[in-house]
Amino acid sequence: MERLRELAAEYGIVLSEGQLGQFEEYYECLIEKNKVMNLTAITEKEEVIIKHFLDSLSIAGYVSFGKGQEKEKKTILLPGDSRVLDLGTGAGFPGIPLKIAFPGLNLTLVDSLKKRVLFLEEVIESLGFSGIAALHRRAEELAREEEYRERFQLCVSRAVAKLSVLSEYCLPFVCPGGYFIAYKAGNAAEEIREAKKAVSVLGGRLTAAEEFSLPGQEISRTLVIIKKEKPTGKKYPRSAGKPAKEPIA
After folding, report:
1. Distance separating the N- and C-terminal Cα atoms of the chain
2. How far is CA 124 from CA 40, 70, 94, 118, 121, in A?
3. Cis peptide before 237 (omega within 30 of 0)
4. What span, in angstroms and rounded, lies between the C-alpha atoms of 228 and 205?
């Protein structure tokens, strides 16, 4: 965990002993639950620290959550108590690491698999979080509810769907002026090109594609940063399955 503290500092994140303890407890919860259900194929501690925890925190290289975390390269400034949605969170990435690092965030975790949400609720209780909720819902349904539609300053996702599809799921949750950031593997240039029309139709604009490598890893990562510039049309997101079968193009 000291390695995590050192590497997080490069993103301008100062982790306390208490926060490192939360990361340690999260890791133990993850590994224990992974014995009875498939949460992650990555279980070796150092790999979890780099490929899950640090990767989740990587947006802090480009986003500042409140005061005291500013660096020259930051391009997005958000309040420390921003409403953040993690869509398709799975085992809690990137949402839980972001909540540990920035406890003031009001975080909503959404996943379509009930047993993963039950695991997340256990983690929330174990870590003593407040200002966080885990929901067992589908994006297509949740995005049509007034409480959630265009209510978030930031939506993040490490989901495996293509960017054109992911944008239709995520952008309806983001308020105009807010951001959707997709965590992508490797060179995302083709995905970005294919998603250009979808992003525009949904009210967004691509502002950056930040490519980087995690420490000790040869495989590159890309953060695709999309700003919400106008409201999303009421017809989006379309019904379950349609965004994937018929992407906006």
Report:
1. 44
2. 18, 28, 14, 10, 5
3. yes
4. 6
- Per-residue tokens: 36: 């009875």
Closest CA to 175 of 232, 244, 249: 232
Give the pLDDT of residue 241: 85
Number of C-alpha atoms within 13 angstroms, CB side, residue 109? 27
**Distance separating alpha carbons of residues 223 and 183, to the nearest angstrom:** 5
Residue 163, amino acid? L
How far apart, in whole angstroms, are the C-alpha atoms of residue 87 and residue 118? 16
Other C-beta atoms within 10 Å of 153: how many? 21
Q: What is the CA radius of gyration of the chain?
A: 17
For range 110-138, the mean pLDDT? 97
Q: Please provide residue 56's backbone torsions phi and psi, each rounded to the nearest 5 degrees.
A: -60, -40
**pTM summary value:** 0.95
In total, the chain counts a number of residues equal to 249
The residue-averaged pLDDT of 190-209 equals: 96
Place of tokens 């208490």: 18
Query: Confidence band (pLDDT; 50, 70, 90) for 219?
Result: confident
Helices marked H in the chain — which ranges? 2-9, 17-34, 45-48, 55-57, 95-101, 114-127, 139-142, 163-170, 189-201, 242-245
Q: If we measure between CA atoms, which residue out of 152, 147, 192, 145 comes closest to residue 170?
A: 152
Residue 119 bridge partners (DSSP): none
| Residue 69 binned pLDDT confidence (cut-offs 50, 70, 90) | low
Q: Could you give the percent of the chain with pLDDT greater than 70?
A: 97
Q: Which whole number is the average pLDDT over 19-36?
A: 98
